[in-house]
Amino acid sequence: MVLTVTPLAYAIANSGPELVDQHCSGCHVAREGENSWSRISQQRKTPEGWEMTIARMGIMHGVEVPPADRRALVKYLADTRGLAPEESAAERALIERRLNRVEEFDHPTFQEMCARCHTGGRAMLQRRPEAEWDKLVHFHVGQFQTLEFQAMARDRDWFGLARSEIVPWLAEQLPLESEAWSNWQEVSPRQPEGTWQMWGNWPGQGRFVADVAVTPETGRDRYRLEVSGEFLDGRPLLGEGRAVVYTGYEWRASLTLNGHEFKQVLDMSEETAHGRIFDDADEAYGMQVTMQPADAVSGVAATLPTALKAGQSQRLVVMGSGLENGEITLGDGIEVEEVVERSDTRVTLQVNVADHVAPGWLPLTVGEHRQDELLVAYDEVDYLQIEPELAVARVGSPETPAVSGVFQAIGYLKSPDGGEDIALGDVPVTWSVQPWDEIAEHDGDVQYAGVMDKATGIFAPSGAGPNPDRKYDANNVGNLRVIADVEGQATAVQDDAHLIVTVQRWNNPPLR
Ligand code: HEC
Ligand code: HEC
Question: Is the pLDDT of residue 301 over 50?
Answer without folding.
Answer: yes
